[in-house]
Design goal:
This protein is an alpha+beta fold and 294 residues long. The protein contains nine helices and nine strands. A five-stranded antiparallel β-sheet has the order 2-1-9-8-7.
Length: 294
């Protein structure tokens, strides 16, 4: 094996374990850890990365830099993204509010790039092309991660897509604990549930073409064996090197909320079954003020 081949093999070493690579569960109201196991083991969060894209965008809306009514254009850069994609053609456009729903429900990689370019264009007037805007947005992702105390996280994309074969780019990297921190920030500081609590979505693009999408989060779907009535978000993630991950939130009957991050499962079934069981236990634990390992 050549040195280059060995190097590439090392870069794509999967971060997957059974039943998971890492797990972290917190009471969203006060940050108390309810359950934790291998919470600081490095993972590849895959499409859970899109939660940071959502957070930055909603914060940009709150600051008045962009508006949910903005028409966001597809670009040459976004049109080169691989599935999962929105299907919105280039050239084309869609309202930002609708695109954020597509980002969460369809997990659209092209949508994440469109959003990143749009938000960065409003914030950085000196960024005059798509690549510059994307770089500015990713820098903001990492700055925000540091501000939140996500000390073991580094983003390289707005969507979590793995590097192309032979690429020097590397993976988005995080931990279960850091992704739980991100989830808590979203549920406490933003109007996130209008985007994350959707099972079936119908939207129209700027030309009036209608698109239909269905959530990847089986814990939200009543037709799934993993359905959890209390769940109302947030985001699934998967690629071959990172396995199946999920940042999930749910609340009990009196409105107390839990955020769970489960990262690097070998299969979606393992992820969903474990998340369902652990979340039920965590919601029950809120009534007793206890904590334990799963």
């Amino acid at each position: 094996m050549t040195f280059l081949a060995a190097l590439l093999l090392a870069v794509i070493t999967p971060k997957i374990a059974s039943p998971y690579l890492g797990l972290h569960v917190v009471d969203a109201d006060n940050g108390r850890v309810l359950m934790s196991d291998k919470h600081d083991v490095e993972c590849y969060p895959a499409s859970c990365t899109k939660l940071m894209t959502l957070l930055l965008t909603l914060e940009s809306v709150k600051r008045g830099e962009v508006s949910l009514s903005d028409m966001v254009k597809t670009t040459k850069l976004s049109s080169r993204e691989l599935p999962s994609i929105s299907g919105i053609p280039y050239p084309g456009s869609i309202r930002l509010d609708e695109l954020l729903k597509v980002l969460m429900v369809k997990s659209a990689n092209d949508g994440a790039v469109m959003i990143a370019e749009h938000v960065a264009a409003a914030r950085y007037k000196t960024a005059t092309n798509s690549q510059q805007r994307l770089s500015c947005f990713i820098n903001d992702m990492n700055t925000r991660a540091r501000e939140l105390g996500m000390k073991d996280t580094h983003f390289v994309t707005p969507n979590g897509y793995p590097p192309p074969k032979g690429s020097k780019r590397g993976f988005d990297r995080s931990t279960a604990q850091d992704m739980a921190i991100l989830g808590v920030e979203l549920v406490k500081k933003t109007d996130v549930f209008k985007y994350t609590n959707i099972t079936n979505l119908k939207v129209s693009d700027g030309d009036g073409k209608v698109y239909y999408y269905r959530t990847h989060n089986n814990l939200l779907r009543k037709d799934s064996e993993f359905y959890l009535e209390e769940a109302d978000g947030l985001k699934t993630g998967f690629h071959n090197a990172g396995g199946c991950s999920l940042v999930l939130t749910a609340k009990n009957k009196v409105g107390r909320r839990v955020v769970l991050a489960i990262m690097g499962c070998k299969t979606g079934k393992d992820r969903n079954a474990t998340a369902q069981r652990v979340m039920r236990d965590a919601l029950n634990m809120l009534d007793f003020g206890s904590s334990s390992l799963p």
